[in-house]
Design brief:
The protein is of the alpha/beta class. It contains eight helices and six strands; from the N terminus they run βαββαααβαβααβα. The chain has a six-stranded parallel sheet with strand order 3-2-1-4-5-6, sandwiched between helices. Helix 2 crosses helix 3.
């Protein structure tokens, strides 16, 4: 079996819950398949050193997509609903997607994306049966943030301001966008993976 795994960070050393999860996924896939590993990361902060126990046939690393100018992504977010703000900031840079298509050697029996961000940032490629890992339910996180900001405003806490009100509104809209985005991704791939039964229920997918 041939597998391609597209990771949103260098999982080694596995510092923190997200990297521990990613490292275990890479190890699990490598134990049952001939693995191609494609890592999108910040070269200034991490160096890719694949541990000897990971049987990766091939691997490559490319930089994160560059964040577009604030005016561009804010305007796009204002007029094009359904794509979360965090995704839009770097969506304009097609370099990771181009690099992946040039490097990959399909067909693959399974293609695993470590986040929905990566699936979007690489242009939603069709390289084989595809799995997207929702490590976090970003719509739930944004909704909770909006609620916390609204509570601050309601209590009249020091520092509550027009900025806080706008941030709360933006978080509510972004929560809705994340929900739509996750549904859009789910409709296009073969399987979505979440960490728990509770997350599966809350995702609505």
């Amino acid at each position: 079996m041939r597998a391609l795994l597209i990771a949103d960070n260098t999982p080694w050393p596995p510092l923190g819950g997200g990297l521990i999860r990613l490292a275990q996924v890479v190890e699990a896939v490598a134990s049952v398949a001939e693995l191609d590993l494609f890592i999108v990361h910040d070269p200034k902060r991490s160096r890719i050193v694949v541990p000897p126990n990971i049987r990766a046939s091939r691997w490559a690393g490319v930089p994160y997509p560059r964040t577009s100018r604030q005016l561009r992504w804010r305007l796009e977010w204002a007029v094009r609903r359904g794509i979360p703000l965090d995704v839009l900031k770097a969506r304009a840079d097609r370099a990771p997607g181009v690099a992946l298509r040039e490097w990959a050697r399909p067909p693959y029996d399974v293609v695993w994306f470590s986040t929905a961000h990566m699936f979007e940032w690489t242009g939603r490629p069709d390289l084989g049966p595809t799995i997207v890992d929702l490590m976090d339910l970003e719509d739930v996180k944004a909704k909770l943030r909006a609620g916390l900001l609204a509570d601050r405003l309601q209590r009249g806490e020091p520092g509550s301001s027009v900025h806080t009100r706008l941030a709360s509104r933006q978080a509510r809209l972004n929560s809705s966008d994340w929900a739509r985005f996750q549904r859009s991704v789910a409709a296009q791939v073969d399987l979505m993976v979440v960490p728990s039964d509770m997350d599966a229920a809350r995702s609505g997918l």
